[in-house]
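Before a colleague's protein record goes any further, I have to sign it off. Thanks in advance; the entry in question is below:
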Amino acid sequence: MKTITWKIHLKSNPNEVFDLLVTSEGRSKFWSEKATEEDDIIHFLFPNGQTYDGRILKNVHNKEFHLDYFDSVVKFQLEQAENDGTDLTLINENVTESDFLEVQVGWISVLMNLKAVADFQCDLRNRHSKRTWDQGYVDN
């Protein structure tokens, strides 16, 4: 099993970034088509029709958000940065060797869209069910 770690700087403050991570509305703006939550389970629906139910493992307001995600553990850690911005670290633990490269680049897509939404209120995804990651589109 392998671990992926990415960092990104956002102009938005930790409260705004945290809200995008922990709310159904926020997650659907940058991550998946739908990401509703019930009883600490997030019901993800992706553009290609794939679904996943991920359990929230830790939620520390404006600091940390951890969840089970495709049988791995994803941790978002937020730190206050200069000028009221946020330094976000994503750590994805227990990624299988066979999935590592796809998951590693997939997080770049998710994080860059998070930055676009948080800092510029712009969704970079094409939001088209026939133009998904499975068909080679990075902007799904």
In short: DSSP finds three helices and seven strands in the chain. The longest helix spans residues 100-120. Helices lie at 14-22, 24-30, 100-120. The longest strand covers residues 51-60.
